[in-house]
């Protein structure tokens, strides 16, 4: 059985960058499940699998189609219980929901402002037009104005990591001695920036940097299979 993971990319189809797809790629690797990556652009999403989704990731596992990175993780946990756990119990699942909320509310908006122009510049022209229109509608201002605000977002970015930094001073992963899905949630945000933008969000000597390097090495170096921008 061949699993397919539909993965967002720019004009270079060998460089998938979606933070949410990276959560799923790491989850599949964590479970030891083989999969093929199907690269797609923003404007191609609605055409895949007969219009099954308007967002990625989308996973085809045999006859089953699953969307949303958290739902995919839950599906993998239920379907492959004999494989390494992504949640290690109800408590870890609940904590992962909190981590997802923190990542979406704190990390993603800041990262978006920092790298938004880099994302745009790496897209095909048809996707650039879509990206500009959709992001300007979301932010209520021009793409250039959002990008200009990225400087202040970068200047204060390290402060936003303090809860994560505090934890990683005392343990190697959010999951403890070994990673869980909570790690992949946060990893996705940093991997997104690493692949798309030459701007560096993490500094040497930071416990968060050390954790990110450990995550890049997981599963045979899956995270390093795409080089940094």
Automatic annotation (TrEMBL):
SUPFAM superfamilies: GST C-terminal domain-like (SSF47616), Thioredoxin-like (SSF52833). CDD domains: GST_C_etherase_LigE, GST_N_etherase_LigE. Pfam families: GST_C_7 (PF22041), GST_N_3 (PF13417). InterPro entries: Glutathione-S-Trfase_C_sf (IPR036282), Glutathione_S-Trfase_N (IPR004045), GST_UstS-like_C (IPR054416), Thioredoxin-like_sf (IPR036249). Residues 8-84 form the GST N-terminal domain. It comes from the Bacteria. This is Glutathione S-transferase family protein.
């Amino acid at each position: 059985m061949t699993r397919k993971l539909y993965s967002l990319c720019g004009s270079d189809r060998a460089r998938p960058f979606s933070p949410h797809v990276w959560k799923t790629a790491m989850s599949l690797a964590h479970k030891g499940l083989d999969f093929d990556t199907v690269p797609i652009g923003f404007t191609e999403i609605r055409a895949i699998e007969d219009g099954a989704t308007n967002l990625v990731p989308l996973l085809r596992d045999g006859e089953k189609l699953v969307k949303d990175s958290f739902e995919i993780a839950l599906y993998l946990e239920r379907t492959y219980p004999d494989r390494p756990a992504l949640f290690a119990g109800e408590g870890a699942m609940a904590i992962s929901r909190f981590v997802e909320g923190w990542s979406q509310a704190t990390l993603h908006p800041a990262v978006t402002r920092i790298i938004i122009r880099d994302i745009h510049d790496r897209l095909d022209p048809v996707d650039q037009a879509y990206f500009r229109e959709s992001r300007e509608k979301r932010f209520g201002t021009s793409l250039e104005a959002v990008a200009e605000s990225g400087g202040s977002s970068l200047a204060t970015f390290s402060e936003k990591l303090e809860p994560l930094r505090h934890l990683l001073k005392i343990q190697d992963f959010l999951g403890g001695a070994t990673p869980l899905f909570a790690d992949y949630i946060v990893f996705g945000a940093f991997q997104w920036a690493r692949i798309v933008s030459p701007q560096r969000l993490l500094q040497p000597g930071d416990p968060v940097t050390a954790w990110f390097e450990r995550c890049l090495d997981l599963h045979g170096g899956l995270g390093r299979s795409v080089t940094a921008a």
